Amino acid sequence: MPFDTRPSPAASPDTLDALWTSAWSGLMSLPAGKSLLEPGARAQAIYQVRAGCLKSYTIDVDGTERVRAFYFPGDVIGFDALGADRYPAHVAAVTASQVCRLPVTELRALLIRAPELTQNLLERMSRDLAVALALSGDYSAEQRVAAFLVAMGERLGGGGSVRLPMARRDIASYLRLATETVCRVLGRLEQSGRIVNENKTVRMVDTARLRFLAGVPALHAA
Amino acid sequence: MPFDTRPSPAASPDTLDALWTSAWSGLMSLPAGKSLLEPGARAQAIYQVRAGCLKSYTIDVDGTERVRAFYFPGDVIGFDALGADRYPAHVAAVTASQVCRLPVTELRALLIRAPELTQNLLERMSRDLAVALALSGDYSAEQRVAAFLVAMGERLGGGGSVRLPMARRDIASYLRLATETVCRVLGRLEQSGRIVNENKTVRMVDTARLRFLAGVPALHAA
DNA sequence: CGGTTCCTTGAGAGAACTCAACGTCGGTGG
DNA sequence: CCACCGACGTTGAGTTCTCTCAAGGAACCG
Predict the structure, then answer these.
(1) pLDDT tens, position by position, for chain B (222 residues)?
(2) A53 and A95 in contact (C-beta within 8 Å)?
(3) Which chain A residue has its CA at the smallest distance from B82's CA?
(4) d(CA B212, CA A71)
(5) Model-level pTM?
(6) DSSP reduced 3-state for B185
(7) How far in angstroms lies nucleotide D10's C1' from the CA of residue A199?
(8) Residue A107: closest C-alpha in chain B
(9) CB contact under 8 A, B124 and A84
């Protein structure tokens, strides 16, 4: 349940959509592993993913990487920087990616020019907030992994087959589990016939059961 | 570190502040335990706490209560409903409280009339988002409790002495721990001389050490 | 003052973590 | 084209932390 990160398009007039869409510019290509944002840097722009996959992460005192979020095409990067005016975390490409840019100054101007867009923005942020709150719950390793698979399946829409471009370590870090635990759970899910684990691709066989394991399906239904 | 929930006032022109402040109306008094919002209800208004303490919580499938947030005077309740147009959780008074109201329609009108306020709103939401993300990390029971105490101390500003109006059970639920674990950690902190535990009030003796235990002090410093 | 709820402390169980080893994949250079 | 190397993935054994179950003590309310 906790892992739907899709900022699905709001049902707003075409003109607003167009305004929003055309605001983005400066397509940028990033090879796998390349850093896009550094924590502490002035938040001069937000970004939208056009292709590939990126991750947001922090490095804590003992040098451990903590993945905060994964971003896929359509997702906006940088909302969490608007408050403090500084980026709070690293953002780097997981696979070769393309992103486009919207300077914060232009975002503000745009919102003053078209206040109706604010609604859209608030919706996206409040959805992110709801997901983050859901993620902070205490769930078993099995629940977390199942929910992650289900959410990724819905997010990427591969029809029961999910390609996970990120390393097991990244998934584990995101789910607050040990890498080994993720492997073990995937192994157990495969043994019990719920999934088929093919390298970086997971085929979900028993989706209903996975959803049940994930717990509350409400968040996805909504 | 993860627990600063204060939406501290943004440094914006007096007129904007005044506009924001005067938008709120309908002071409402709630006795302890009284429910303010129910999940699923149409989000017709957001609220601001004027006095007391409230909590936001969900009830999951097995009937367990999960506390999502505590609200104190100045905090805004309901941001997370703006996206889905429905409140996502229960909100109830922990102690006798007073709140005032801002209908969503008026909020939208206000934002169109004074788009500069949007910035303020985005800042509040993005701060909430950052806190929620921080809270979702995996921390030891000791880290969580220490961080909670430090954050509450900063939040309520009682000069090293924090009054915790909510039950241990609520704190435990919020921190994703068992009630007993919270008690045990408080006991250990007291035995090692870091705090003095007087019923509902905790005096922080070794604040520096508590901050260290809480981990990254960055979030508070910023 | 009795009852209820909350807080605290103890003993045992279970889930996830750490440590460790081995197998696999992908890239690089001979 | 193949062999090697390093990073990643998987699996096992033992440990640790927190949870659950249980009971006694303290505070609050009628």
Answers:
(1) 445 444 444 444 677 778 888 899 989 999 999 999 999 999 999 999 999 999 999 988 778 899 989 999 999 999 878 777 899 899 999 999 999 999 999 998 888 788 778 777 777 777 777 777 777 788 899 999 999 999 999 888 877 889 999 999 999 999 999 999 999 999 999 999 999 998 899 999 999 999 988 875 433 332
(2) yes
(3) A123
(4) 32
(5) 0.81
(6) helix
(7) 11
(8) B119
(9) no
